[in-house]
Fold this sequence. Notes:
By secondary structure, this protein is mainly alpha-helical. It has helices at 34-55, 61-89, 101-108, 112-124, 132-136, and strands at residues 12-14, 17-19, 25-27, 92-93, 96-97.
Amino acid sequence: MTPSRPGVEPWETAGRTAHWPDGVGTYTLAFHGNKQWSIADEADTAIESMDAIQSGERLEQKLIWEGLRDIRRLKQRLAAIEEELMLAAREPEADRDKMSFRELGEAIGQHHTTVKERYDRLAVEGRTHPFRRWLTENTPRADLYPTN
């Protein structure tokens, strides 16, 4: 996974990261499947939007619209992934859950009682993120929890 650009040599590389003489930095992503491609594409749009904001140039309507759209989509996908990880963290493993509510709270920056309430909403009430279906479609996890 070495980053490359035709006709240009990076001045520094470290794994999947490269820094180029013109100030551009690249990070090569590797993934399986179209769903991961969606996340990479939306994150790329978010980075392009950030670059445009920081450049001080006039922000064009097309860039604003695409940036807002893709950031919304990315946030939805990430929220679904976060919730699925929360569900997985409480699944039994040997003699205990993988993670306690306190450990979960530390990982996501919330008080453990808030995490417990959120977990109950997801696992017991089935009020999962609408993108859960997108995330777990055709996987063994799809039917593990009720999904709204």
